[in-house]
């Protein structure tokens, strides 16, 4: 097999492993790497070649999730009015952070803290773009600090992942947004 074909297969395997790991870890945060490899349709050796430790896999899943979330801002703004885009984006963030919190100890190492800390600037910038669009539409007042908004809305991912928790999260988001209005 030519070297470029092997590299292409390796990249495809890596992406499949990451997508499956994202889905499996959302369902079962303590899932084994072997179960992830099996569900991805690769052998354990292939998974371990790409991700030598559980932490390495989890950190890459986290990093990719943040990248996808940040990249979704423009698409979300194009599909919805700015205030609805803000709501939708924070709802997606809430689900993602719930997954992260379910991974518990796996995200408490020094390497994990570096990855998590590196996510703050792009997430803050994304929230800033959403807020700017809302300001331009006259839906929120100018001058809101994106980090303050993230901290305020962090209550959303502390609500239970139940229908009642979803309703509570919606009420909390409504309260916060009412405070953002001009």
Task: Offer a few descriptive terms.
single chain; 182 residues; mainly alpha
Question: What can you tell me about this protein's structure?
Answer:
The chain has helices at 3-27, 33-40, 44-50, 54-79, 82-102, 110-136, 146-153, 163-180. It is an all-alpha fold. Helices cover 77% and strands 0% of the residues.
Could you give a short description of this structure?
With 182 residues, this protein is mainly alpha-helical.
Count up the helices: 8
Query: Shape from CA axes?
Result: elongated
Low-confidence stretches: none
* Share of helical residues: over 70%
Write the layout of secondary structure elements.
Blueprint lengths: L2 H25 L5 H8 L3 H7 L3 H26 L2 H21 L7 H27 L9 H8 L9 H18 L2
């Amino acid at each position: 097999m030519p070297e470029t074909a092997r590299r292409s297969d390796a990249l495809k395997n890596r992406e499949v492993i990451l997508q499956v790991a994202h889905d499996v870890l959302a369902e079962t945060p303590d899932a084994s790497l072997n179960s992830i490899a099996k569900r991805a349709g690769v052998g354990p050796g292939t998974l371990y070649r790409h991700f030598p430790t559980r932490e390495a896999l989890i950190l890459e899943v986290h990093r990719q999730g943040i990248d996808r979330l940040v990249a979704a801002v423009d698409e979300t703004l194009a599909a919805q009015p700015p205030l609805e885009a803000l709501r939708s984006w924070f709802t997606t963030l809430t689900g993602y952070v719930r997954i992260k919190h379910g991974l518990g100890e796996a995200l408490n190492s020094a390497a994990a803290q570096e990855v998590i800390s590196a996510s703050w600037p792009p997430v803050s910038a994304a929230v800033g773009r959403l807020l700017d669009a809302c300001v331009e539409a006259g839906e929120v007042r100018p001058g809101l600090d994106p980090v303050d908004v993230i901290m305020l809305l962090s209550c959303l991912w502390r609500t239970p992942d139940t229908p009642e928790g979803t309703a509570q999260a919606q009420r909390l988001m409504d309260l916060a947004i009412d405070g953002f209005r001009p």
